Automatic annotation (TrEMBL):
Subcellular location field: Cytoplasm
NCBIfam families recorded: histidine_hisI, PRK00400.1-3, PRK00400.1-5
Protein source organism: Pacificimonas pallii
Cross-referenced PANTHER family: HISTIDINE BIOSYNTHESIS BIFUNCTIONAL PROTEIN, HISTIDINE BIOSYNTHESIS BIFUNCTIONAL PROTEIN HISIE
Keywords associated with the record: Amino-acid biosynthesis, ATP-binding, Cytoplasm, Histidine biosynthesis, Hydrolase, Nucleotide-binding
InterPro entries: HisE, PRib-ATP_PPHydrolase-like
Pathway: Amino-acid biosynthesis; L-histidine biosynthesis; L-histidine from 5-phospho-alpha-D-ribose 1-diphosphate: step 2/9
Catalytic activity field: 1-(5-phospho-beta-D-ribosyl)-ATP + H2O = 1-(5-phospho-beta-D-ribosyl)-5'-AMP + diphosphate + H(+)
Full protein name: Phosphoribosyl-ATP pyrophosphatase
GO molecular function: phosphoribosyl-ATP diphosphatase activity
Pfam family, one: PRA-PH
Domain of life, per lineage: Bacteria
EC number: 3.6.1.31
Gene field: hisE
Amino acid sequence: MTDILNRLALIVAARADAPPSESHTAALLAKGRAKVAEKVGEEAIETVIAAVQDDRQAIIGESADLLFHLSVLWHDAGLTPDNIDAELARREGLSGLAEKAARKS
Ligand SMILES: N=c1c2ncn([C@@H]3O[C@H](COP(=O)(O)OP(=O)(O)OP(=O)(O)O)[C@@H](O)[C@H]3O)c2ncn1[C@@H]1O[C@H](COP(=O)(O)O)[C@@H](O)[C@H]1O
């Protein structure tokens, strides 16, 4: 998964300056952060709907759409998959329940 996210980050960076008429990535970035964020939300909701409908193929397709649009958002925010990787690695071994308890104390 990390491999494909790294490749996707390179693709997004390479397509960012393409003419918007030739690239979905460039067209989306040209619309600005709010639109990119809106698309992430839209794809997340579509993933939720697919999950509730128990549609395995749709979950896969919508998850791929979500990860692509998240990659565009990371690019727009000056982030790379390495940044997310580091945060997930930091959390490794820490129970979600223990983390929540530490936040509340
Ligand atoms: N992985 C993707 C990818 N996943 C989904 N999408 C597009 O994201 C859109 C999501 O569907 P929507 O119905 O929400 O989009 P839409 O109909 O354009 O709706 P609006 O944006 O108008 O709201 C579709 O147009 C998909 O084709 C993607 N577009 C590009 N990529 C990757 O980015 C590369 C470069 O693409 P371009 O930037 O288009 O050259 C591709 O080769 C792929 O590797």
